[in-house]
Amino acid sequence: MSIDPALYQRLAKYNTWMTDKAYVAADQMSDTARKEDCGAFFKSVHSTLNHLLFGDRAWMRHFTGRDYYVEKIGVDLYEDYGALKAAHRAMCGDIEDFADDLTCEWLDGSLEWTSRSDGKTRTRPRWLCLTHMFNHQTHHRGQLSTLYMQAGIDIGKTDLPFMPDLLQQDVSG
């Protein structure tokens, strides 16, 4: 199977765009409101943002061999919101840089890793694992979107075809 790396380059840009939107929305909340248990899977906006960063770091460790700091699943990486935001934005840059260097050959290969959650070693196609990382982001951003709406914050359009750089193509033809 040969997948065009351009797919993942677009998804990396989408991730950056949506992460920025998530933090613009979170900036409108007090620290207390961001950390309030709202009954979501990871309880709060703050902890859901932490989990998104956790997932990105966990997968990027496997893809790159870089030693990104992670905790156990469900444990916040950052208590301080400003530090979380800075780390998350830096991770978006790392993901874009990684995606920019992808090749069909890398995507066609296999990834072997040992899960920190159950200790089992698994092997899966790299394209599948990378697709999962982006799908995981979308899943939890959907949860955030609901939490923001419940707080009276509308983050606006979230659909991939409506990214600002793609909308510029509508104008320029």
Write the layout of secondary structure elements.
Elements: H1 5-27, H2 31-35, H3 45-64, H4 81-100, H5 104-108, E1 110-114, E2 121-125, H6 126-150, H7 164-172
Antiparallel strand pairs: 1-2
Helix pairs in contact: 1-4, 1-6, 3-4, 3-6
Structural class: mainly alpha
The average pLDDT value, as a whole number, equals 94
Number of β-strand runs? 2
Strand order of the largest sheet: 1-2
What's the order of the H and E elements? HHHHHEEHH
User: Which value, in Å, is the CA radius of gyration?
Assistant: 17 Å
Explained architecture:
The protein is globular. The protein has a two-stranded antiparallel ribbon. It has helices spanning 5-27, 31-35, 45-64, 81-100, 104-108, 126-150, 164-172, and strands at 110-114, 121-125. 24% of the residues are buried. Helix 1 (5-27) packs antiparallel against helix 4 and helix 3 runs parallel beside helix 4 (81-100). It is mostly helical and 173 residues long.
